[in-house]
């Protein structure tokens, strides 16, 4: 698996983020994480529909995402990990 490459400019949104060296305490609330496969087309997310997906058949790359719900600093937020295929 290739090393994680941080985006040049981190996205802002309703999810966990922190700077290098910054420490935060968090509690994982989800019993199991969720996995989604998403195609990005012109800056918009389109969920992969699986076998027969028109985006897969058109060779549009998909991104795998795993997320769990966490509590951090009194706020419930998703923690998302992703990997491009």
Describe the structure.
With 85 residues, the chain is mostly beta strands. The protein has a domain at 26-84. 5% of the residues lie in helices and 42% in strands. It has one helix and five strands. It has one helix at 54-57, and strands at residues 26-28, 34-41, 44-47, 62-72, 75-84. Strands 1, 2, 3, 4 and 5 form a five-stranded antiparallel sheet that branches. The radius of gyration is 15 Å and the shape is elongated. The chain starts with 25 loop residues before the first strand and ends with a strand. The mean pLDDT is 80.
| Rg, Å, rounded | 15 Å
Helix and strand succession? Answer: EEEHEE
Shape: elongated
Contiguous helical run count: 1
Estimate the strand proportion: 35-45%
* Derived structural class: mainly beta
Q: Which residue ranges are poorly predicted, with pLDDT under 50 across at least 5 consecutive positions?
A: none
Helix content: under 10%
Question: Mind describing the biggest β-sheet?
Answer: 5 strands, antiparallel
The assembly state of the depicted protein chains is single chain
Average the pLDDT over all residues and give the rounded result. 80
Count the strands?
Answer: 5
> N-to-C terminal Cα separation, in Å?
10 Å
Name a few traits of the molecule.
mainly beta; 85 residues; 1 helix; five-stranded antiparallel β-sheet
Could you give a short description of this structure?
The protein has one helix and five strands, in the order E-E-E-H-E-E. It is mainly β. Strands 1, 2, 3, 4 and 5 form a five-stranded antiparallel β-sheet that branches.
């Amino acid at each position: 698996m290739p090393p994680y490459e941080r985006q040049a400019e981190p996205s802002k949104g309703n999810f966990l983020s922190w700077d290098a060296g910054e420490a935060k305490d968090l509690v994982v609330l989800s019993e199991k994480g969720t996995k989604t496969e998403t195609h990005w087309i012109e800056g918009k997310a389109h969920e992969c529909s699986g076998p027969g997906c028109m985006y897969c058949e058109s060779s549009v790359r998909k991104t795998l995402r795993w997320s769990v719900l966490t509590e951090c600093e009194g706020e419930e937020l998703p923690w998302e990990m992703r990997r491009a295929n």
